[in-house]
Amino acid sequence: MLPVRICSNASRHVGCKVAPLTRRALPIASKYPFQKPTSCDQPKRSLSTSTTPPTHPEVIFSGIQPTGVPHLGNYLGALKQWVDLQNLAPPSTELLYCVVDLHAITQPQDPNDLRRRRQDTMAMLLAVGLKTERCVIFEQSRVAAHSQLMWVLSTLAPTNLLARQTQWKSKLAESEDRSPLDPDGSSKLKLGLFSYPVLQAADILLYGTTLVPVGEDQVQHLELARSLAGKFNRTFGKILVVPKVKLAPAKRVMSLTNPTSKMSKSGAVNSQINLDHSESEIRLRIRGALTDSIPGISYDREARPGVSNLVEMIGNMTNRDDFEVIARECEGLGMKEFKDRVADSVVEGLKGIKEEYERIKGDAGYLEEISRIGAEKANRKANETLGKVMEAMGMGVNPAPSSS
Ligand code: AQP
C-alpha cells in the first residue's frame, strides 16, 4: 500500500445547520483552506504496518466504551486515527467503528446513564468527523453475534492467559474490598471483566478485521485475539482472519495530575481533557498539569514524565513525532508559557468538536436512526462469519445433505 499523508485539517467536520440525516458538515480543510499548511508536511505514515501490499482489501475495526465523554487519550489514541483512516483509506477498505456497550457493563452501570452515554458516544463519533456514508458506526449490544462468538471463543481461551492480562491484574490490584476472607480482593471482580478480552476478540474476528487501530493499553488484548483466531483456524479450518494491530502515533496519553498513569475516563478530576471541554477549561487544566522543578523544557519520559507528556501533546496534536525537536523549540520558555503553547495546540486541534457534539447529541431521533442503520449492516456481516464458525464446529443450521 502506498504511504499516505496525514492532514489533521481534513480529518474533521465542523457544524452546519441542515436537517437530520441529510446534514453534511464541511471538512475543516474546505472551510479553512489555507490554515495550518505545515501540519500536512509532517512525516508520512503508512496505513498498514506491513510494507507488502495486502492481497485483500483491508477491514478496519475498533471500539470505544460508552463510559463517559471521551478524553484526549481516547482522541489521540483512537478517534483521531479512526478519522484519518477514514479519510485516507482507499474505497475498498471497510471501516467499522463500534460503541462497545457490552464491555462497559463489566463495571456497574446505571441503566439511565448507560442509555444516555451510548447516545452521547455515538454523537461524539460523528462530531469528531466519522461519516456514516463511509463507515459502519454501530452499538455492540444490537448485534447478538458478538456475545455468541464470544462464547465459542471462550471455550478455546486458556484461563491462565486471561489471568495474565495487565488490565485484569490492575483491576485486581485496585479492588477495594480486600478483607481477611477475600485476600485477593477479587469478590467485586466479575467473570465478565475477566473474560473482557475474549469479547474483544469476538468483536474483531466477526468482521474479518485485518487492522485494529488502538492505543498501547490494548495491545496485549489484541495478541489474545490473534492467538484465539489461530487456535480456531488450526482446530476447525481457516475461517477467521488473524488481525494486525495498528498502534496510534499517540501510544499513551498520560494523566495531567499523575503523569505516570494513562489518562483515563475513570481518572481523578482535572486529570483529563474531555472532548466537550470549553477552551477556558482546557487551558485551566493544562495550566494545572503536574510537571517538575527542573529548569527549562526537555523531553525525557522517565525523568520528566509530566513535561514529556505535554511535549507529546503538542506533537500529537500537530502530527509530529520529533518530540526532542519540539522540546528544543520550547527550550527558552518558562513553564507557564510552555503550558500556554501546549494549550494552543490542543485548543486548535480540537476546534469545532465540542460545538458539533453539542449540536448532535440532543437529537435522539437522528442518533437512533444512525444506530439502527449501522446495526443492520453490522448484523449482516457478523452473522455470515458466525454461521461459518458454527457450521465448522458442527453446530447451527446443518448443511443440506449431499445427493450421492
Ligand atoms: N490514555 C490513553 N492514551 C492513548 N489511547 C488511549 N485509549 C484510552 N485511553 C488512552 C484508547 O482509546 C480507545 C477506547 O478506549 P475505551 O474507552 O474503550 O477504554 P479504556 O481504554 O478503558 O478508556 P479509559 O478512558 O481508560 O476508560 P476507563 O477509565 O473506564 O478504564 C482504545 O483504543 C484505547 O487504546
UniProtKB/TrEMBL annotation:
Residues 36-47 have a biased composition (Polar residues). It comes from the Eukaryota. Keywords: Aminoacyl-tRNA synthetase, ATP-binding, Ligase, Nucleotide-binding, Protein biosynthesis. One of its GO terms (cellular component) is mitochondrial matrix. The keyword Nucleotide-binding applies. Gene3D superfamilies: HUPs, Tyrosyl-Transfer RNA Synthetase. Its EC number is 6.1.1.2. Residues 35-55 are annotated as: Disordered. GO terms for biological process: mitochondrial tryptophanyl-tRNA aminoacylation. Belongs to the class-I aminoacyl-tRNA synthetase family. The keyword Translocase does not apply. CDD domains: TrpRS_core (cd00806). It is an enzyme of class 6 (ligase). GO terms for molecular function: ATP binding; tryptophan-tRNA ligase activity. The gene is MSW1_2. PANTHER family: TRYPTOPHAN--TRNA LIGASE, MITOCHONDRIAL (PTHR43766). This is tryptophan--tRNA ligase.
